[in-house]
Structure prediction request, 235 residues.
Amino acid sequence: MTPREFVISESIQAPTGNDGRYEYRVWPRPGHPAIAILNSNWPLVAAERRSDIYLVHAASDRILVKLRSGRRLEIKRREGDVGRIQYWTMPFTSEFPLTASGRHRLAGALSLHGDLPRAASLSPAHLLAAIDARDGRVFPQTVRKSRMLFRNGGCRAEICRVAVGGWTGRTVALEAPDLPSIALAIDPLHLGTLANRSYGDALSRLFAPHLERRGTPLDRPGLLVRTQLQEKKSQ
Prediction:
């Protein structure tokens, strides 16, 4: 098997710097074979539980903005795709309080009309209050995560149980600093037929479907999720 890897330590600790990673994230139905394969064949290297706050906006599938653990601001940018594999960088990450430059960068990432007030840079709570007071173009979503992290060579893999409000689901992801490591892991895990959909893309489709998104439509997992929710309500 070709060596694969995933940078687990950076997942547990807040990433820094602008190093890019190739990513492939799917939201499979229960019982997908990738889950059993990862649990049986890939070394488990870490596990964690945390809650991140995503600032969902019209371009979340391209510019991902979140508060890691509700505390640290991260802005990730999707630079380009190789087939369906996405390449993401992190041009900005910072603790609070934000500098004036950081506040400007955040407003630009969210495509806001005008700058955020100076008070928004004081803390995550101040930022969320400022966003709530605006015109409804940004939708904060708290995502609770329970993650199992695996590593095989140069590729890291993740199985994550996700909860947002009353909705729960599971996502499987691959990450690697180089393209071959991630490309060679997709088919053995039977992931190639599933759409690569980042957190920003998935959250905007599920919880802000009225947003006019930039980018190419993928297959529509929201229909599956909404159907599952309707079935639960009818039971």
Observations:
- Residues 8-234 form a domain with the Hypothetical Protein Pfu-838710-001 fold (CATH 2.40.320.10).
